[in-house]
TrEMBL record:
A GO cellular component annotation in the UniProt record: membrane
Spans through the membrane: 226-248, 260-281, 288-310, 322-346
Name of the featured protein: Acyltransferase
Coiled-coil regions, chain positions: none
One GO process term, biological-process aspect: lipopolysaccharide biosynthetic process
Keyword annotations of the record: Acyltransferase, Membrane, Transferase, Transmembrane, Transmembrane helix
Classification via InterPro entries: Acyltransferase_3, Inj_translocase
PANTHER family documented for this protein: ACETYLTRANSFERASE, ACYL_TRANSF_3 DOMAIN-CONTAINING PROTEIN
GO terms assigned for molecular function: acyltransferase activity
Length: 378
């Protein structure tokens, strides 16, 4: 009786049979059968006959579809609001938008393929400058001329940029706005623009200073010598003292006579001391005299009050010459002391606060002007 040989090569065996009968199983049928068996096992493990598992998989598929639909809606809403924000030029609107859609900026930036970090920063900076320059054809032409080499370095043809701007200036402004945002992000992009706008303001101030200096060149070149100014300063002080003395000695003195003598002397003194080049100017340029000059307005306000108050305790008309001099010296030093205290603890702190407030106000106005320029460019 024939027996089954366990050690037979099934593949060779089937091949031998197949060689004799074309309808017989072939060696390749073994691999196909094994593939079917593996597929069946995988389907069993995946839950083909498990109704609960199939239901959970169906719910997961529905959830994924719903999540994808919500993401598409969020993307569409962002694109709509982003376009509106760029058109408005409102910086705060852009910042709020990036906070509302935190993942969108990464998507925008990931869509931009930069050669390296230097190219990204360079293109972002160029875009910020182009955004400011797009305010007028003249500014754009100047910007292109000044940045032609940098544009070429990062692989941008200046002629193409000029053509884009000429064809659609507003569209060009929106394009470079988006490009700069994508390259640098909102914070760095706005900081770069603020620095550029600040440099433009500083250039304007420098140009104005140069024009002012040029306008005053004649005055500087025609400034009198030290000896002439010293003589003029001393003479102006003498004229003032003489006018006061003459009015004081005149028995028929009145306000008109005082003004007729004092005002011309004071006007001459102001003109002479404006050069700040004589001996008296040098003397009064030290710190003590500068402090007295700063406190002069307070001195003007308090000296009459001090004199009238002291007069209540001293009858000047009944005093001798020495007593009158003592009274004058006492009133002078009392007025100086009070006026200096008023300046140091009242006038100076208020002036500093006003200057600080004014400086902040000017900065706010400058920022507002920059934002308006950006809005007009859009």
């Amino acid at each position: 009786m024939a027996t089954w040989q366990q050690g037979i090569n099934s593949g060779g065996f089937l091949a031998g049979i197949g060689g004799q009968n074309s309808n017989a199983p072939k060696a390749s049928d073994v691999s196909e059968a094994l593939a079917y068996i593996r597929q069946n096992n995988e389907m069993e493990r995946s839950g083909r006959n498990n109704i609960g598992l199939q239901a959970l998989q169906g719910l997961g598929s529905v959830a994924q579809t719903s999540q994808a639909a919500k993401q598409q809606e969020a993307d569409a809403a962002f694109q709509k609001e982003y376009a509106a924000a760029i058109q408005s030029g409102d910086r705060q609107q852009v910042r709020d938008l990036m906070t509302k859609y935190p993942g969108q900026l990464e998507k925008i930036q990931s869509g931009m393929k930069w050669a390296d970090e230097d190219q990204r920063n360079s293109i972002g900076t160029l875009a910020a400058g182009a955004r400011l320059a797009a305010s007028s054809p003249e500014a754009m032409q100047s910007w292109l001329q000044n940045n032609a080499k940098e544009l070429a370095r990062v692989g941008v043809d200046p002629n193409n940029v000029a053509q884009m701007y000429q064809q659609n200036p507003s569209g060009f402004g929106e394009f470079v706005y988006h490009l700069g945002m994508a390259a640098l992000g909102p914070i760095d992009y706005f900081n770069v623009q603020d620095k550029m706008a600040g440099r433009e303001i500083d250039r304007g101030r420098l140009a104005e200073t140069i024009r002012s200096n040029q306008a005053g060149d004649f005055e500087f070149k025609s400034k009198p010598s030290y000896l002439v100014l010293s003589f003029a300063e001393i003479s102006s002080v003498v004229f003032i003292l003489m006018s006061v003395y003459m009015v004081a000695k005149s028995q028929n003195s009145n306000g008109l006579q005082y003004d007729a003598l004092f005002i011309p002397s004071m006007a001459f003194s102001i003109l002479v001391f404006s050069f700040n080049g004589g001996i008296i100017s040098k003397i009064i340029s030290n710190k003590v005299m500068i402090l007295l000059g700063d406190a002069s307005f307070s001195f003007y306000l308090v000296h009459t009050i001090v004199i009238s108050t002291l007069s209540k305790f001293f009858n000047v008309s009944g005093l001798g010459a020495i007593s009158v001099i003592k009274f004058i010296v006492m009133a002078l030093f009392a007025s100086l002391f009070i006026s200096i205290m008023m300046y140091l603890f009242f006038e100076k702190p208020i002036n500093n606060k006003l200057r600080k407030w004014w400086s902040g106000f000017k900065n706010d106005v400058s920022t507002t002007r920059v934002e308006k320029i950006e809005g007009n460019q859009l």
